[in-house]
Amino acid sequence: METRDLLLLEIRGETIGNLSIDSSIEEKFQNKTLRPIIKLQNDLFIEVFINYAIKQKSVFFSLSPEKKIAYIENVIQRDIKFRNSLKGMIIAFFTIDEYSEYITNSSSLNKRMMNILIERLKSQVQLLEII
Q1: pTM summary value
Q2: CA angle 39, 56, 93 (to 5 degrees)
């Protein structure tokens, strides 16, 4: 398992955000683990969201930019199957130690995970179009 963990850490790259002695455990996990994984998986998240929107009768694509932003937030918060799928795409990139840390405080970390992902998708709403 060491090889897998080392490869994951190498692929993900550096910590994103500031860490200090005053940072909470959740904030450290967010900046050291969640943000690099979500950045790495960004292109996949965009494609997954487009596919989801298409399967939902493509309503998303006819919305105004403001309504698209609300749609993104609403879908990720309310569609549990979709949210769990997104969560799985992030958890798959955890090391064994990170997973052990995650399961001790999964509720709080899940909220952080989804909030980061929602903000990332909202900031790239112009990329969420059928090509």
Answers
A1: 0.90
A2: 25
